[in-house]
Amino acid sequence: MNKLKKGDEVIVLTGKDNGKRGAIAMIKSDRVLIDGVNIAKKHQKPNPNAGVAGGIVDKEMPVHISNVAIFNSASGKADRVGFKTLDDGRKVRVYKSTGEVVDV
Q: How would you write the chain as a 3-class SS string?
């Protein structure tokens, strides 16, 4: 079970996008793609067969997973994630600061 999952709201801790929040769109090994964060300009060639126009497009680039933390909406701050086993045997993610379950 991973500490971060697709769809989690995270906050960027370091870099040029420090403090920005967004939802995780994709996780690939040790990097995450976050909606609206780490935007780069990409020069794209036109492809008439696929209907793609050429030019300069904005593209979201991945961020290392160590540079993001899950956003705790109750406290309004970044938080760390731990694991806890419930009485019924389920393993759930919890916020380290409060002990509340992340997945509600």
A: CCCCCCCCEEEECCCCCCCCEEEEEEEECCEEEECCCCEEEEEECCECCCCECCEEEEEECCEEHHHEEEEECCCCEEECEEEEECCCCCEEEEECCCCCECCC
- Tell which CATH architecture fits domain 9-78: Roll (2.30)
The torsion of the CA quartet 64, 68, 70, 74, rounded to 10 degrees, works out to: -170
The long-range contacts involving 80-88, CB below 8 angstroms and separated by at least 24 positions, are 81/3, 81/4, 83/1
Each domain of the chain, given as residue ranges in start order, spans 9-78
Amino acid at the residue 89: G
Residues 43 and 52 sit within 8 Å (Cβ to Cβ): no
Residues 28-80: tens digit of each pLDDT: 999 999 999 999 999 999 999 999 999 999 999 999 999 999 999 999 999 99
